[in-house]
Amino acid sequence: MSTSTLGTSVPQVTARAKVLGRAQYAGDIQIPGMLHGKVLRSPYPHARIVSIDTSAALALPGVKAVLTGADGPRVCWGTHHKERRILAEGVVRFAGEEVAAVAAVTEEIARDALDLIQVEYEELPALLTTEQALADGAPGIHPGRDNVSHEIRFARGDVDAAFAQAHLVHEQAYSTHAQYPGYMEPMATVARMDPDGRLQVWTSTQSAFLARARIASVLELPVSQVRVIQATTGGGFGGKIIEDANNLIASLLALRTGQPVRLVNNRLEDFVAACTSVPERITLKLGMDRQGRIVAKDVRILADCGAYSGLSAEVMHVSAMRSDNMHRLQHVRSHATLVYTYTPPHGAFRGFGGTQMLFALNSHIDTMARKLDLDPLEVHRINAIERGETSVHGWQVGSTGLQECLSQCTDAIGWKAKRGKPGHGSKRRGVGIAAAMHVSGNRTIGDWDGSTVVVKLNEDGRAFVHCAEADMGQGAMTMLAQLVAHELTLPLEHVHVVQPDTDSAPFAIGSLASRVTIVAGNAALVAARAARDKLVAQAARLLEVAESELELADGAVRVRAEPKRKRGIAELARTHIWRHGGEAIQVSGTWDAKTTMFDKQNLMGNIAPAYSFAAQAVEVEVDTETGQVTLVDSFVSDDCGKALNPQAVHGQSNGAAAQAIGWTLYEHLQLEDGRIANGNFADYTMPTPDALPMLRSGIVESNDPNGPYGAKGASETAILPGPAAIANAVFDAVGVRITDLPITPEKVLAALREKHHA
Amino acid sequence: MSTSTLGTSVPQVTARAKVLGRAQYAGDIQIPGMLHGKVLRSPYPHARIVSIDTSAALALPGVKAVLTGADGPRVCWGTHHKERRILAEGVVRFAGEEVAAVAAVTEEIARDALDLIQVEYEELPALLTTEQALADGAPGIHPGRDNVSHEIRFARGDVDAAFAQAHLVHEQAYSTHAQYPGYMEPMATVARMDPDGRLQVWTSTQSAFLARARIASVLELPVSQVRVIQATTGGGFGGKIIEDANNLIASLLALRTGQPVRLVNNRLEDFVAACTSVPERITLKLGMDRQGRIVAKDVRILADCGAYSGLSAEVMHVSAMRSDNMHRLQHVRSHATLVYTYTPPHGAFRGFGGTQMLFALNSHIDTMARKLDLDPLEVHRINAIERGETSVHGWQVGSTGLQECLSQCTDAIGWKAKRGKPGHGSKRRGVGIAAAMHVSGNRTIGDWDGSTVVVKLNEDGRAFVHCAEADMGQGAMTMLAQLVAHELTLPLEHVHVVQPDTDSAPFAIGSLASRVTIVAGNAALVAARAARDKLVAQAARLLEVAESELELADGAVRVRAEPKRKRGIAELARTHIWRHGGEAIQVSGTWDAKTTMFDKQNLMGNIAPAYSFAAQAVEVEVDTETGQVTLVDSFVSDDCGKALNPQAVHGQSNGAAAQAIGWTLYEHLQLEDGRIANGNFADYTMPTPDALPMLRSGIVESNDPNGPYGAKGASETAILPGPAAIANAVFDAVGVRITDLPITPEKVLAALREKHHA
């Protein structure tokens, strides 16, 4: 009787609380005396703050604090550059920048108080595009610096020579736009001073410890004086890693008022406050041989980080380098430039820069395959890096299921039968494919890419798991529970994963870079096996049998040769305490990837313990009269190494596919004079179910040698191939190549018109 | 520059939050939707519950639940015997027994609802005294059993032969009464179902883990489904170990209503609900040689546990045995009987049964010394067990400061000058002394007397300490912080001791048997030193120096021979994470006393890692016209091994002395027909400051080899000698011997009258 759920579909351990409405999101937390925060934001993309008069706001009954940049703190935050203030002082650099924060006894009063804050601005000229920002003589958006926030250049091999020898060279520019993360739960925080005068923060986050570090740094507190508890988190998609000011402002208000403060973005506020994905203009030049092998690659990227760099530099790094590792390349060159503009900041987003580049690369491969009269599928196959190979940037591929992903999704969609058969009439059909690669973990975060898990066995034989990697809906807690339950032969419901709390949980980096399954999963194995060893040792004492003759099975430790001689886990856990020299079983397991530190000089090194792959095939219908592109079918295949919980992988894959489709066809954040013009779900049109076909997904298990039971990060990869697959399918249907996302009916119609006129 | 506070007086780490009114006691916790509980109690000491009609109460708007015994659960609780129900069913056995519990939206409605519960009782005859309960043919208070709850008998050596050879034999009966713990904070709990459907309980307790175990057991939940968080606890004195039903009832109401429930005893309720100390009638017979050596001892105890045994059996064990170990004895015999009566249950109380017996023993020694014309001080000295000796019950005395305690307190009080000089007129003065012994830890709790402490070092070089031993005001958290700070050379304020939480803290037994300083203190040393070793290892990596050449000092690890080559703790903690194979420093330390399991058959064994001693000398003034005894001076000397925080030891010693004085002279819980008649602070007269002299206390440091830096349990011992010291002083003043506590003016006057008539 095995109780293990490993590899089987189970509902997430957090599902019941969520479905019953009991899960406590940060916004659900109520504390007596709690104030409500509101933020006043700049209406101008660039302006001098001449004066701020808060007296009328402060005089409003119920208002407890009105803070401006002049009230401090003056410590700046930001990942790559510390350049952003909690509250602006002197100057605002984007429409939406935080200018003042109010705490009041009700949300209504706080909102009313915002209207009473008198800010006098002197509006200044705003550089709204990268072109403007890079123009000769353009003034620096940040004092004493030019408008290049970050730059990456590298060249490997002899790129020019390789291009000269190529059979086919193709160059094309692609442009990608910002996407709003669109999580169900907007950013939310409740902060208070605890009885000991420490700052306690419940927040919606992808990393309690990164949040603690940032809050402490900006508020000039030792980290030990800050406690961050990850509240139930309703989605993150990269937007809740470290770039939102929500928990900083709530913390500041709590610190200054001494009262609990709740700050929950409404959707409009969240659109303005959230970092959206980095818009990139990518100029891609590939050289291929006659068989479609990529023999040379040249990449130029112009990326816009907005007014503050945030994580955009790291995102651009990924755009510039990651896709190179998917192929067997020798001659590659890249030049990427991140530029400040007076626009709302961009940053991390599911896929982390991979999406932008893989739109370009997969579009390019499709185009060149057609030019070479090759099946793009075969071009993907011939270029794909294989297991055991080391990429041009030093990445060691321990497993890859890319070939199988390509087969699986193309078989599923009917690639061979449907390709190149658009049909007749005004509604044409086409199919498209694309391939993708992602990391599972990333040592470039700092010279550690590990995780620590504590397993605690209670006297009833059930386990608690402490780990501060975040579950933001993706299923991290379920994964940990499954692994610990499996190792200890416990029913899944006998493992309780405790909400991350920086006071008690072991230090962790958090949920980003698809790292949690591989690093925390492995740490869970280490911890659970250490707990198992203690159970076995205790059974050896009770049964007076050598440990080597014992095994843990079916909830008991038994004599291997005499399976009926056994002791149950509850008895073992209890008697492990109640004996001479006893103690409760509470063990810690740490795992750190045996990867190499990224060489910053040469941009070289095996940065992740494993790499995930995905491929997607789609079928579209294009209405040639309206330009409307409708997705008819989509199948995304995800190589997650091993699906610990297939249902969760499918859920994530389909969610990722939907988000990719949204970005490709529907979602377009409109800036008008630097201001977000459609920051609401009526005008910012995320795909609703009627806009999507029944999304399909498949799992490929390449069994990574470094993964827990072979598992790698699942399904962040699945957002990557969709956009190009759709663009390629549109080309297959109507012969027009859209290189400028999103693929709107207007662009399709314009391209069709141009094609007919050509 | 040493920052260590070890051995110096520091304010408790909890003081600031308490003084500022910020500390969160259970009763301070407010949760949205929280209901308020109230308990209906039996007005009769013994009755059959004929019927309970809750319909009117349930119909009262705002009432959410009215539970009776018929609603279950039917699992019984109790330490020695599982015999007590959360809510009585069928029969009530004491006036005050819980009959029904209400949860309502306000406390007022809950109180009103109690009045609407219609209970029909058939009053039954009540056995209110041990004599009645033991009378032939007395019906069993618990079905199928006689009224002896527990019995202890032992004899060592040849007691009769020893008495036959004694120079002086004296026998006397003493009687002691129940004392209400009188903590500042009555029992209080808030319980709720958490989002995952687990029961979460904030309660005022001396042991979060014992509370969890009992709640889980009685509510028939796995312990893992229960989370107990010790709220700030305003005193315990034994009353909050495990015997109060408050957190059981709050938990039951939360479980049944699905809503948070607050149940806070008001003072009247607490008097009825709390277990008071065990009243014992002790018949003591001692044989002495001519020099005052005790050559034979015979003890008979008749103890009253009330309607349920609770911890009374364990208390009686202590009365029957512990004081034997203070002396060099060979021939001792004891017969102790614990008897049920239809009265409110008794149980644990500071001193845990020692107080009762030491009143008898010290009174007895004074009487016999006088008969032998010896200074009682010399009789104490000649009998006192010495370091390195093993007592008649197998206790191994690793340290004793009793002789020094005796010298210190008698010197302080002016014993030699004042003794036997009552003066003239109606106000006579006398001095008295008494000696005491206590345990520091106790293996009889279960075959483990250890503790586990987790030390977590943060990136700012500050430490968190997790330990579930309770601070109920005595200073456990400060002790832990001092030890960890000392080991890691941190300022005290850089160590934060986290509130006990059964989800995250390591398993612990809790605060009882004066065990926390020795067991948790030692565990803290183990953990802190393990953390130190990790700091040293990291410094060895950074400095490229062998660990053996390094030392931790003044907040840094330095090269011993080159003290300026060093790395600060913050840097070491941070870089211990951020490196290949890194992890945060979070280490666990366990220490278990190397004592022997009490042999239950022979009642023999070295049950504690150390034993504490105390002596007290007092001066009283007796008004021969009114019988009023006034304490003029008191000096209690406590052998705590090593005073880690002298101010805390003095505070505890003086508090213990005050509680002893209250019991001896003032506090008398009155039962009228089995009902508590003076359950309030107006009528139950705890000593107010005007009733006390400036209490004085002294510390004796006997440096126990098993203690952390020599420390033993501090100051529970200090409650033990006071009562006899006062009785002896009264005799010294006016020549009357009060053997029946409390020493009221009426008893003194009556004794004086009797003496004059004799």
End-to-end separation of chain A: 70 Å
Number of domains of chain A: 3
How much helix, percentage-wise, in residues of chain A?
Answer: 25-40%
CATH superfamily of the largest domain in chain A: Aldehyde oxidase/xanthine dehydrogenase, molybdopterin binding domain
Structural class of chain A: alpha+beta
CATH topology of the largest domain in chain A: Aldehyde Oxidoreductase, domain 4
Uncertain runs of chain A with pLDDT below 50, 5 residues or more? Answer: none
Can you list the strand order of the major beta sheet of chain A?
3-5-1-12-9-10-11
Strand content of chain A: 25-35%
What summary fits the major beta sheet of chain A?
A: 7 strands, mixed
Number of helices of chain A: 19
Task: Report mean pLDDT of chain A, rounded to a whole number.
Answer: 96
Please give the number of β-strands of chain A. 30
CATH domain class of the largest domain in chain A: Alpha Beta
Work out the radius of gyration of chain A: 27 Å
Oligomer: homodimer
Shape of chain A: globular
Domain Aldehyde oxidase/xanthine dehydrogenase a/b hammerhead (chains A, B): 20-125
GO molecular function (chains A, B): iron ion binding; oxidoreductase activity
Protein name (chains A, B): Xanthine dehydrogenase family protein molybdopterin-binding subunit
